[in-house]
């Protein structure tokens, strides 16, 4: 399964192949094969490996094949010079394989990727490579039917490098003659018939007899009816510029029944078709040994990948789940000897839109203080798992630390939360799901980072927003009352809830499990008049009051009545004053993030927040 990995900072894209955990031999074989071929510029370079475990059941091999086009997608616009250029590189790649006793097995118009800017071809799809040994029996025929050689079509198990050369001939022939496939049979027998129409029957039957290949009577009878037409019959006015005599000569030397008589890759490089190629331009590996240099980005995965020593690329492994939410989970991925650490957030494919939505906001938030920085993403076109890659922050759970926080700790954390909100609000973004579980608390360094932007939205004055956002216990009154004209104040309310939790030493200041119970508890704290005034001001009907009939005489709770011996040291007058200006029923009357940052409770400890 193929994926794209993109670095958010440099916008550099890489290609990765994912393997299920139940098939460990395949990634090991691919790694071993690519290591042997790393000096060839036309072979993908391994940039990193990532080893997973349940419930991320995959191994990833990351290579330098990002943002490349498939041969088949651009072949129609190739000039004669383009075809020569890329075909020459194809034979360089095949010669590198065959000189290492490697049969590629899946040369086709999808496994050949092209960087049109750099004019560079990469031979990909290494899952089914075989090591060639004389007389070795092969049990797989991995290539598409359109590119299978006669020996494969007849079920021969002892094949050799010739299967790659035949496939290369099919790729080149379809390109120079401007047809989707040079042989387009839908079954093996049809494909044999298509080949016999062009190459004739005599050599095919001689080949079958020489190598003791069994052909059914029906197919043999059909083959005998064909006479050799040759490849010139494909030449039309539409392709005469690219289907030159030298090009056809190359095809004729590749598409030969007898695999022992097909031209070798090294020999093909010397044919007249490539006489104008500046060969020295293709054999240098200078450009493959450059390092990437993006500081602290996903490129760190790969910055040592082009070193000439074997296995020099970093190898990463999944060290388990560190968080989860409605749309996915977060895992800790480590490099060798803990050299790199990443947090990888996964999305199910049904939530793919969440990845793109969150990624959009993360790009705007680059450089925003106290937000967890996104380094890149992994996107599979056909894979269930989609991922965002973040800096890894060693974290503590709010529930484990809030009860023991000193006044200074509380002020430092709240100040950093507000700095994050000030940053995102200044960029026009509402988070809309602020809560402790969407914050990363590095308690050893007294740092907090706001994360999870899956419910974020851009603010537009007077706009109508979905009210199904937020989390019980942290939802603002306007959300609880389904008031759709959200403002940045929607994020300020939960900061008040977190501050109250810390200074009063209670897990939740509003401990409801539904929106209705949250609203009742909010009215108990702020009084029925706050609700009445809100409904009147914002045009909310009596339905907003119906659930609160039992509280019709409820007055505002005095915060100081919540002070106990256990919390008196942190529930100071300054802390309560700030709380009183954050937990305000009317969003227009709440402090903004910028206003709250000027509060004396936060400023007196500002020197400690370095």
From TrEMBL:
The Protein kinase domain extends over 1-274, 316-602
- A matching Pfam family: Pkinase
Q: Which PROSITE patterns match?
A: PROTEIN_KINASE_ATP, PROTEIN_KINASE_DOM, PROTEIN_KINASE_ST
Q: Which SUPFAM superfamilies did the record assign?
A: Protein kinase-like (PK-like) (SSF56112)
**Which terms in the Gene Ontology molecular function aspect does this entry carry?**
ATP binding; protein serine/threonine kinase activity
Tell me what reaction this enzyme catalyses.
Answer: L-seryl-[protein] + ATP = O-phospho-L-seryl-[protein] + ADP + H(+); L-threonyl-[protein] + ATP = O-phospho-L-threonyl-[protein] + ADP + H(+)
The EC number(s) this enzyme carries: 2.7.11.1
| Sorted UniProt keywords | ATP-binding, Kinase, Nucleotide-binding, Serine/threonine-protein kinase, Transferase
| Protein name (record) | non-specific serine/threonine protein kinase
């Amino acid at each position: 399964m193929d994926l794209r990995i993109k670095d958010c900072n440099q916008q550099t894209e890489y290609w990765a192949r994912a393997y299920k955990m139940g098939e460990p031999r395949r990634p090991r074989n691919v790694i071993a094969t690519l290591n042997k071929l790393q000096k060839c510029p036309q072979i993908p370079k391994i940039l990193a490996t990532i080893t997973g475990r349940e419930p991320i059941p995959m191994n990833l091999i990351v290579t330098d094949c990002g943002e490349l086009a498939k041969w088949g997608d651009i072949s129609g616009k190739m000039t004669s010079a383009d075809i020569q250029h890329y075909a020459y590189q194809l034979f360089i790649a095949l010669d590198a394989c065959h000189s290492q006793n490697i049969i590629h097995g899946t040369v086709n118009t999808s496994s050949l990727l092209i960087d049109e800017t750099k004019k560079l071809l990469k031979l990909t799809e290494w899952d089914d490579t075989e090591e060639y040994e004389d007389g070795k029996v092969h049990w797989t025929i991995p290539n598409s039917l359109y590119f299978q050689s006669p020996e494969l079509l007849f079920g021969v198990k002892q094949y050799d490098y010739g299967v790659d050369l035949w496939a290369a001939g099919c790729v080149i022939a379809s390109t120079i003659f401007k047809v989707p496939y040079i042989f387009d049979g839908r079954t093996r027998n049809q494909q044999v018939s298509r080949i016999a129409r062009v190459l004739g029957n005599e050599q095919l039957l001689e080949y079958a007899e020489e190598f003791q290949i069994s052909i059914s009577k029906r197919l043999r009878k059909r083959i005998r009816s064909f006479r050799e037409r040759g490849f010139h019959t494909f030449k039309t006015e539409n392709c005469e510029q690219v289907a030159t005599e030298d090009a056809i000569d190359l095809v004729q030397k590749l598409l030969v029944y007898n695999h022992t008589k097909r031209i070798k890759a090294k020999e093909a490089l010397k044919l007249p078709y490539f006489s104008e190629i500046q060969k020295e331009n293709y054999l240098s590996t200078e450009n493959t040994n450059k390092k990437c240099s993006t500081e602290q980005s996903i490129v760190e995965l790969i910055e040592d990948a082009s070193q000439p020593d074997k296995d020099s690329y970093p190898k990463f492994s999944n060290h388990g789940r560190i968080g989860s939410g409605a749309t996915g989970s977060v895992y800790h991925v480590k490099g060798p000897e803990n050299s790199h650490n990443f947090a990888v957030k996964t999305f199910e494919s049904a939530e793919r839109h969440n990845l793109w939505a969150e990624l959009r906001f993360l790009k705007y938030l680059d450089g925003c203080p106290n937000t967890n920085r996104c380094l890149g993403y992994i996107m599979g076109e056909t894979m269930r798992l989609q991922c965002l890659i973040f800096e890894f922050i060693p974290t503590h759970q709010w529930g484990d630390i809030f009860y023991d926080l000193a006044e200074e700790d509380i002020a430092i954390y709240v100040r950093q939360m507000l700095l994050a909100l000030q940053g995102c609000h200044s960029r026009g973004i509402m988070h809309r799901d602020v809560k402790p579980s969407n914050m990363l608390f590095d308690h050893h360094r007294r740092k907090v980072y706001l994360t999870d932007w899956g419910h974020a939205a851009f603010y537009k004055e007077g706009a109508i927003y979905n009210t199904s956002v937020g989390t019980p216990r942290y939802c603002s009154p306007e959300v609880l009352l389904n008031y759709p004209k959200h403002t940045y104040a929607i994020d300020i309310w939960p900061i008040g809830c977190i501050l109250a939790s810390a200074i009063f030493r209670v897990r939740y200041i509003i401990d409801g499990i539904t929106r209705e119970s949250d609203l009742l508890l909010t009215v108990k704290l702020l009084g029925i008049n706050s609700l009445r005034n809100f409904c009147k001001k914002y045009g909310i009907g009596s339905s907003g009051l119906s659930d609160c009939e039992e509280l019709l005489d409820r007055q505002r709770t005095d915060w100081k009545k919540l002070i106990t011996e256990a919390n008196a040291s942190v529930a100071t007058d300054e802390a309560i004053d700030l709380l009183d200006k954050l937990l305000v029923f009317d969003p227009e009357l709440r402090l903004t993030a910028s206003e709250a940052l000027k509060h004396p409770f936060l400023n007196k400890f500002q020197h400690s927040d370095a």
